[in-house]
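Standup notes, structure subgroup. Blocker cleared on the magnesium ion input:
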Amino acid sequence: MVLDLALGDPEATARCGRALAPAIDAGMVITLAGPLGSGKTTLVRALLRARGVTGAIKSPTYALVEHYPVSSLYFYHIDLYRFTRSSEWETSGLGECFRDDSVCLVEWPERALDRLPTPDVELVLSYAEEGAGRRLRLVANTSRGERCERAARAAMTQRA
Ligand SMILES: Nc1ncnc2c1ncn2[C@@H]1O[C@H](COP(=O)(O)OP(=O)(O)OP(=O)(O)O)[C@@H](O)[C@H]1O
Ligand SMILES: [Mg+2]
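Run returned:
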Protein backbone atom coordinates (compact mmCIF):
# COMPACT_ATOMS: atom_id res chain seq x y z
CA MET A 1 0.00 0.00 0.00
CA VAL A 2 1.24 3.46 -0.85
CA LEU A 3 0.12 6.83 0.49
CA ASP A 4 1.25 10.17 -0.95
CA LEU A 5 0.82 13.30 1.15
CA ALA A 6 1.56 16.99 0.77
CA LEU A 7 3.06 18.45 3.95
CA GLY A 8 2.67 22.20 3.69
CA ASP A 9 4.66 23.19 6.76
CA PRO A 10 6.65 21.65 9.65
CA GLU A 11 3.46 21.26 11.68
CA ALA A 12 2.04 18.96 8.97
CA THR A 13 5.18 16.83 9.18
CA ALA A 14 4.77 16.66 12.96
CA ARG A 15 1.08 15.81 12.62
CA CYS A 16 2.03 12.84 10.47
CA GLY A 17 4.49 11.65 13.12
CA ARG A 18 1.80 11.91 15.78
CA ALA A 19 -0.65 10.01 13.58
CA LEU A 20 1.78 7.11 13.17
CA ALA A 21 2.69 6.91 16.85
CA PRO A 22 -0.25 4.84 18.20
CA ALA A 23 -0.02 2.37 15.30
CA ILE A 24 3.55 1.36 16.16
CA ASP A 25 4.39 -1.59 18.35
CA ALA A 26 7.29 -3.78 19.40
CA GLY A 27 9.54 -5.21 16.71
CA MET A 28 8.71 -2.67 14.04
CA VAL A 29 11.20 -0.95 11.73
CA ILE A 30 10.46 2.35 9.99
CA THR A 31 12.89 3.94 7.55
CA LEU A 32 12.95 7.63 6.65
CA ALA A 33 14.66 8.52 3.37
CA GLY A 34 14.96 11.92 1.73
CA PRO A 35 17.54 14.65 1.18
CA LEU A 36 19.20 16.79 3.86
CA GLY A 37 16.66 18.91 5.68
CA SER A 38 13.61 17.21 4.22
CA GLY A 39 11.96 16.69 7.62
CA LYS A 40 12.94 13.20 8.78
CA THR A 41 13.97 14.20 12.29
CA THR A 42 10.95 16.53 12.60
CA LEU A 43 8.66 13.55 11.98
CA VAL A 44 10.52 11.22 14.35
CA ARG A 45 10.59 13.83 17.10
CA ALA A 46 6.81 14.29 16.96
CA LEU A 47 6.29 10.53 16.94
CA LEU A 48 8.47 10.04 20.02
CA ARG A 49 6.76 12.92 21.85
CA ALA A 50 3.39 11.35 21.11
CA ARG A 51 4.66 8.09 22.65
CA GLY A 52 5.52 9.95 25.85
CA VAL A 53 9.19 10.93 25.48
CA THR A 54 9.55 14.13 27.50
CA GLY A 55 13.27 15.00 27.50
CA ALA A 56 15.42 16.39 24.71
CA ILE A 57 15.22 14.56 21.38
CA LYS A 58 18.49 15.25 19.60
CA SER A 59 19.23 14.42 15.99
CA PRO A 60 21.46 11.31 16.08
CA THR A 61 23.59 12.53 13.16
CA TYR A 62 26.79 12.42 15.23
CA ALA A 63 25.94 9.80 17.84
CA LEU A 64 24.54 7.43 15.17
CA VAL A 65 21.82 6.31 17.56
CA GLU A 66 19.78 7.78 20.41
CA HIS A 67 17.59 5.52 22.47
CA TYR A 68 14.42 6.22 24.40
CA PRO A 69 12.96 3.59 26.72
CA VAL A 70 9.17 4.02 26.98
CA SER A 71 7.73 1.55 29.53
CA SER A 72 8.99 -1.82 28.31
CA LEU A 73 9.63 -0.69 24.73
CA TYR A 74 12.95 0.63 23.41
CA PHE A 75 12.77 3.22 20.67
CA TYR A 76 16.02 3.57 18.70
CA HIS A 77 16.40 6.68 16.56
CA ILE A 78 19.20 5.88 14.13
CA ASP A 79 20.87 8.17 11.57
CA LEU A 80 23.19 6.50 9.04
CA TYR A 81 24.19 9.74 7.29
CA ARG A 82 27.82 9.34 8.28
CA PHE A 83 28.05 5.77 7.02
CA THR A 84 30.11 5.64 3.87
CA ARG A 85 30.15 1.86 3.46
CA SER A 86 27.57 -0.56 4.75
CA SER A 87 30.46 -2.71 6.04
CA GLU A 88 30.65 -0.19 8.91
CA TRP A 89 27.45 -1.82 10.14
CA GLU A 90 29.35 -4.67 11.80
CA THR A 91 31.70 -2.43 13.79
CA SER A 92 28.91 -0.05 14.77
CA GLY A 93 26.97 -2.68 16.73
CA LEU A 94 23.73 -1.22 15.40
CA GLY A 95 22.43 -4.69 14.58
CA GLU A 96 21.73 -5.13 18.29
CA CYS A 97 19.07 -2.42 18.14
CA PHE A 98 16.79 -4.59 16.00
CA ARG A 99 14.90 -6.79 18.46
CA ASP A 100 11.41 -8.00 19.32
CA ASP A 101 11.18 -5.49 22.16
CA SER A 102 12.38 -2.48 20.19
CA VAL A 103 11.21 -0.07 17.54
CA CYS A 104 13.83 1.26 15.10
CA LEU A 105 13.36 4.57 13.27
CA VAL A 106 16.14 4.84 10.70
CA GLU A 107 17.19 8.01 8.83
CA TRP A 108 19.38 7.63 5.71
CA PRO A 109 18.59 3.89 5.28
CA GLU A 110 20.14 3.93 1.79
CA ARG A 111 23.57 4.01 3.46
CA ALA A 112 23.15 0.40 4.70
CA LEU A 113 20.30 -1.09 2.72
CA ASP A 114 21.92 -4.52 2.47
CA ARG A 115 22.16 -4.75 6.27
CA LEU A 116 18.75 -3.43 7.34
CA PRO A 117 15.78 -5.78 7.76
CA THR A 118 12.84 -5.09 5.46
CA PRO A 119 11.09 -2.13 7.06
CA ASP A 120 7.41 -2.35 7.98
CA VAL A 121 7.03 1.21 6.72
CA GLU A 122 9.21 3.15 4.29
CA LEU A 123 8.82 6.92 4.48
CA VAL A 124 10.31 8.97 1.65
CA LEU A 125 10.36 12.74 2.11
CA SER A 126 11.13 15.20 -0.66
CA TYR A 127 11.04 18.92 -1.29
CA ALA A 128 7.78 20.08 -2.86
CA GLU A 129 8.24 21.33 -6.40
CA GLU A 130 6.36 24.50 -5.59
CA GLY A 131 6.44 26.44 -2.35
CA ALA A 132 8.32 25.70 0.85
CA GLY A 133 6.64 22.45 1.85
CA ARG A 134 7.51 18.80 1.56
CA ARG A 135 6.01 15.66 0.08
CA LEU A 136 5.80 12.33 1.82
CA ARG A 137 5.42 8.89 0.28
CA LEU A 138 4.56 6.10 2.71
CA VAL A 139 5.04 2.51 1.55
CA ALA A 140 3.70 -0.28 3.78
CA ASN A 141 5.48 -3.63 3.40
CA THR A 142 3.78 -5.65 6.17
CA SER A 143 0.35 -5.90 7.77
CA ARG A 144 1.61 -3.82 10.68
CA GLY A 145 2.90 -1.29 8.20
CA GLU A 146 -0.54 -1.19 6.62
CA ARG A 147 -1.99 -0.33 10.02
CA CYS A 148 0.36 2.67 10.07
CA GLU A 149 -0.71 3.60 6.56
CA ARG A 150 -4.39 3.59 7.57
CA ALA A 151 -3.63 5.71 10.66
CA ALA A 152 -1.74 8.28 8.59
CA ARG A 153 -4.40 8.31 5.89
CA ALA A 154 -7.17 8.88 8.43
CA ALA A 155 -5.38 11.70 10.21
CA MET A 156 -3.86 13.44 7.19
CA THR A 157 -6.74 13.40 4.74
CA GLN A 158 -9.56 14.47 7.05
CA ARG A 159 -8.52 18.15 7.03
CA ALA A 160 -7.67 18.24 3.34
N1 LIG B 1 6.53 20.06 5.67
C1 LIG B 1 7.51 20.96 5.85
N2 LIG B 1 7.53 22.12 5.19
C2 LIG B 1 8.54 23.01 5.37
N3 LIG B 1 9.58 22.83 6.23
C3 LIG B 1 9.61 21.68 6.92
C4 LIG B 1 8.59 20.70 6.78
N4 LIG B 1 8.90 19.65 7.61
C5 LIG B 1 10.05 19.98 8.24
N5 LIG B 1 10.49 21.19 7.84
C6 LIG B 1 11.70 21.92 8.28
O1 LIG B 1 12.85 21.42 7.63
C7 LIG B 1 13.99 21.62 8.44
C8 LIG B 1 14.83 20.39 8.49
O2 LIG B 1 14.11 19.37 9.16
P1 LIG B 1 14.77 18.07 9.76
O3 LIG B 1 15.94 18.39 10.61
O4 LIG B 1 13.66 17.31 10.35
O5 LIG B 1 15.30 17.35 8.43
P2 LIG B 1 16.08 15.98 8.24
O6 LIG B 1 15.47 15.33 7.05
O7 LIG B 1 16.09 15.20 9.50
O8 LIG B 1 17.56 16.44 7.87
P3 LIG B 1 18.94 15.61 7.94
O9 LIG B 1 19.05 14.85 6.66
O10 LIG B 1 19.98 16.70 8.04
O11 LIG B 1 18.90 14.72 9.15
C9 LIG B 1 13.47 22.09 9.80
O12 LIG B 1 13.69 23.48 9.89
C10 LIG B 1 12.01 21.75 9.75
O13 LIG B 1 11.24 22.63 10.54
MG1 LIG C 1 17.66 14.29 10.57
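Discussed briefly. The first strand starts at residue 2 and ends at 7.
Next: hand off to the docking folks.
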